[in-house]
């Protein structure tokens, strides 16, 4: 990456905590009296992918590894936790061993798994590593522009079909090429931010407030229009752009140094999110298993959500400690 990037550390743990909260909330439609309050999946996922690209970009500025060693380290961070979660929750707690075929075991334990982030990030790692190593040939910024252009082009089939036949749109119904390119662009955006992180470090100002207000309005407005009122489904590009913009602004807020004025107004938020960020992978994996249990439906709102979050967090910590007992290669 360019040598203009500062090498001092930016702590993204609070941002990871926020990301997993957004993703978890997006799966809780049946927990809320109003289902559209269960939102934030796009923001959470884009935060995860952006932080991944950011971390890779920062690591590349300090050391270089061969691809096999580099890739193995990242897979060892993901798969032992995935396997432990599936064994403890899918097989033992949910008794899915009754229903899974041999093919299901390969799909769940290896690839693509039931987790969107894992299915994509293990592929993106290859592209991101190539981008880091080929930086002298094509910069991360130019690569971002290329992927954004391809993303816009891949949206055309959906825009045409939605113009002909408007429907109540859920983002999972969009074509897979568009979704893959969108999150790849977000990961490469993380590389760009790692190489030019002065903006992330700069104190927050009135301009950030204006941007956040506009992005929230665009995000909520297009979300309601598409998924609740069944109008303007072609506006999904605006929805995705606003979601990515909000995720970057959230990252900017949550990496602000502890002495910045904002933390006087959000006292206690940063330590809580940072603690959650320390088990963000585990929480991401665990909550998708636990919310399949029917017992949450017996609890009234908001106790169902609070109980679910506490139980998910406790199980996530236990999973993390179990994984630490596994003798993994270094």
Textual characterization of the structure:
This protein has 330 residues and is mainly alpha-helical. The protein has one domain (13-324). 67% of the residues lie in helices and 0% in strands. Helix 2 runs parallel beside helix 5 (116-133), helix 3 packs across helix 15 and helix 14 crosses helix 15 (303-324). The longest helix is centred in the N-terminal third of the chain and has 27 residues, at 67-93. The radius of gyration is 20 Å and the shape is globular. Mean pLDDT is 89; it is low at 1-7.
Break the fold down into its secondary structure elements and pairings.
Elements lengths: L12 H14 L14 H20 L6 H27 L8 H8 L6 H18 L6 H15 L1 H9 L11 H20 L2 H4 L4 H22 L8 H19 L7 H4 L3 H9 L2 H11 L12 H22 L6
Q: TL;DR of this structure?
A:
This protein has about 325 residues and is mainly α.
Q: Outline the low-pLDDT stretches.
A: 1-7
Average residue-wise pLDDT: 89
Count up the domains: 1
Distance between the termini: 26 Å
Structural shape: globular
What radius of gyration results from the CA coordinates? Answer: 20 Å
User: Describe the biggest sheet?
Assistant: none
Derived from helix and strand composition plus strand pairing, the structural class reads mainly alpha
Number of helices: 15
Give the SSE string: HHHHHHHHHHHHHHH
Q: β content, as a range?
A: under 5%
User: Total number of β-strand segments?
Assistant: 0
Helix content: 55-70%
